[in-house]
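Below is the record:
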Amino acid sequence: MIRVTFDGLTKTFDGVSAVDGASLDVAPGERMVILGPSGAGKTALARLIVGLEEPDSGEIRFDGRSLSGLPVQGRKIGYVPREDALWPHRTVAENVGYRLKVQGIGRRERRMRVGEALGAARIDSLADRHPDSLTPLQRQKVALARALIGEPDLLVWDEPVASLDARHRIEFRDEIRRVHTEHETTTILLTSDPREALALADRVAVLDFGKIVQVGTPIEVYNRPADSFVAQLLGPTNLLQGQADSCDARGEVVVRTPIGRLIGKPSGDSPSPGTPVTVAIRPESLAIGPAVPPDSNRFLATIERQVLLGATRQLFLRGPNEWPITALALQAQSDGLRDGQSLTVSVAPEFVVLLPSKAAARPS
């Protein structure tokens, strides 16, 4: 297992910056997920790590050793690209073993190592099949076996479940966990899917326009986002513009908002009185009903409409000043709610997160 370090990586294509000063330290054996929307620079960063592109500036190091100028074949990296890039005229075994053939590895050793890689990906029975006869999930497992054939120190996955349906995404996530554990490799996974990031990561690095804007455990970046971009990227959230009023010794801040005064906690340093802030509240942190826990924020709201999501029910509310609020409630505990009903909504201060303010339009 190796430590991977990016230090100020930059890469520009046709005058457009794809990677802009990205710095990150990935611990040996860590499963690091780099999360960003489409166009954030994930594939460009993956290609820099693998060696398919050279950075304009900055450095990548493995255990302190610079990779500058080191070709792809010298990096001991297993790469699973977004597109599986399998050769249609070759069998699964030939696709997996082609790298060894190019390296001049003898047929007997090649056959043995291909068998081991297919076994590691649990696709032994597919050895003689061709890619066009495989399902998308099977093709991804072939790409995985091909990545494992070189006994890599680092596995790099670029959007590994993007081509899969919902059921197979869950299955392949389990496969990623299993391979990471059994092969004890440092892993970097790049994705635009927040559920994938939260489910798989030891730590998450959030990428925005080629810059890494926050690094933390999944629960840290979800519950304490650095700004409104991170908050919205990780999942639905209610955003309100407000102004800090006062701060107490526990670090709790009173904020004036369109739905009234709320007590919350800043994601970073406590704002000074009078400072504009953005308030972020996750829908699932809002409690519905008359029983309000001690010290919770509370306000009255009216149900406009409801959407059943299976185990949960999405509630579209109008709060004070007709401000729109979205809440989530367990379906089994909210079956009696009706459109037009007035109710009390409460939220604990630790789930009212204060972010640096950015001007935002009132939601409709």
